[in-house]
Design brief:
By secondary structure, this protein is mainly alpha-helical. The protein is built from ten helices and no strands. Helix 5 runs parallel beside helix 7, helix 6 packs antiparallel against helix 9 and helix 7 runs parallel beside helix 9. The longest helix is centred in the C-terminal third of the chain and has 40 residues. It is globular and about 60 Å long. The two termini are 32 Å apart.
Length: 264
Amino acid sequence: MSHSSHGVDPIFAPAEGTLARQMADRMRSVPPVLAAVAVWIVGFVVVAGIMVGLGSLLTHVLASTGGTRFDAAVSRWFVTVRTPTWNTVTSIGSDLGSTAVVIGTAVIAAIVLAIGKHWRQIVFLALSLTLEFTVFLVSTLLVDRSRPEVPRLDVTPPTSSYPSGHTAAAIVLYVGLAIVIWSLVRSTVVRTIAWIIAIALPIFVGVSRLYRGMHHLTDVLASVLLGCGVLLFALLATRIAVAVREEREGAVDLKSRPATLKAA
């Protein structure tokens, strides 16, 4: 969890009085890595519980009462506006949230960050992506929802339609990278461009998955909740780990000082 001492935005260094600092005070006896893992586990339980609960509501309650008819109508509408050009465009949009692109982009980002010794940012991205994948996997295994009954433009994976893994992964990756850029770059122009891209790409991915008949509208909307929840817990876990380490290092420095300095 070592880090460079320069160019680090307070977003990864919690100030006194914040939730992360208060929790770190209670976890100061725990190694920073274990503190981050503990928050990751809590995040998994909370976000997965919400996702599975919403999925069960969709499949067992709303579906039987006609509450998902709007989903079907949206899927059918996208079929009516398909064109060869949009088929190509949405294929690109879908790929931007694919496993290969997400992992490849994350690895490249991690290498660049490692060269700059920005370990906090690497930890944040790792916590975010692993939490998103784990919650997605559990949700899709426990919520058995069929994909839209329309012609699909992609090969249908064996996973459930709920939630949209492409959309959730895109949110976590691209918004996560925007947060990382925000923490390292002071330029307002660069920050603004990063956030525009971070918002636009997940929307592009989500709409593309709808257009191609791979998910219901509510699958994509649930993935927005999944992605946002994951990012919040990953950010909290990183901030707590940083605060715990700072407090442990401060305690060590205090113990190592000469008795005369302590008294002063």
